[in-house]
Amino acid sequence: MLEVVDSHFHIWDLNVLHLPWLDSCAGIKKSFSVDDLCKAYATHEVDFKGGVFVEVDCDLAIKEDEYIFNLKSSKILARIMRAPHLCAHMRLPMGIVGVREPLHIDTSPRGRCLEQSFLDGLEVLVDRNMIFESCNRVEELEDLYQAAVQVPKAKIVINHCGNVKQMTSDYKRVMIKLAKLPNVYCKVSGFVTKDKVFVKNLLDFLTGEFDASKLLYASNFPVVELYSSFDEHLRTLREYFGDDADFFSKNTKKLYQINKPQIFASVIRLRPEKAEYYKKLHANPFASVNKKIKECGITKYQIFNREDLLFSIMEYCGDDFEYDMAKMAKDSETQRWWKETDPCQMRIDGALKNEWWADMKLVYDLNKARIDK
């Protein structure tokens, strides 16, 4: 059964929160709960694990924070809360993975992405390892691109395919540029599904320009009911992507670091006659290999050297280590890299037959009371 992790859903209780924008949205002007979301998925043959709650433009952001954190639902796997105004001193609640400043609403000034306070806010998010969710006017995607170039380490997630309504040349041009940036992702949602030709053209374009690891399934529940329906949107994407585990769950888990990090340490010998060449390789590694490492859920990776020994420490935030390592092993650029590095190494004595780098066992952790044997 297909596992689904929804990268973008909303819920609200109108007895608690005031959402002024709902006054013009009669079709969804009522409360929606996590149970309602689960019921929507229950009509499809999928294993819904939960997803990423995204702020709902409540008139009091603090009130929304209190509401969401008090729910304590196991289906809320990560939280994107509202930053009314990105800046160097913005409020960042504990327990969130990122923020969204709505850029598509009437009160957001044109050119907001290029204001210095916005850029300062992106820098703060970089320092905190947080994500910026960009819901912007389609004609301001160029501004978003310029902001991303100025703060290249910022992780930016384009909401709803950039709110596109027509496949114009301007839209394609800027999305191609955004897709080439290493830290820009795109949620596949927000489009009218009844126009099958438009949908096909849009999905063909996105999958042709963005790496598969940077496209995320998103329902936009329950706002999806304003321009399509939850059921039709999910059916449309399953017809196009099939049961692609990366698209429907794994990409979201990795980006939002939903799984607890796993630490792997290993050791191998360095051939003395190849030591300088090995160090030279790693002083300027293949960019394509670094990219693939990140795509496979590895968020930190370091190699240390002492005489003829190499020690590595790896932090993995995916949910299926064997799956991701197999995907890495199939990558042609990674194989090309290994052809350079493997001759520089040799197994340590006592390594298992199937081990190249030999696993090391954790014996002490400052932050753990005890280590499982």
Automatic annotation (TrEMBL):
What keywords is this UniProt entry annotated with? Hydrolase
Q: Which InterPro entries match?
A: Amidohydro-rel (IPR006680), Dimeric_a/b-barrel (IPR011008), Metal_Hydrolase (IPR032466), Metallo-dep_Lactonases (IPR052350), Rham/fucose_mutarotase (IPR008000)
Domain Amidohydrolase-related stretches: 95-256
Q: What Pfam families does UniProt report for this protein, alphabetically?
A: Amidohydro_2, rhaM
Q: Does Methyltransferase count among this protein's keywords?
A: no
- Any one GO molecular function term: hydrolase activity
- Which family does the UniProt entry place this protein in? Belongs to the metallo-dependent hydrolases superfamily.
Name of protein: Predicted metal-dependent hydrolase, TIM-barrel fold
Native species of this protein? Answer: Propionispira arboris
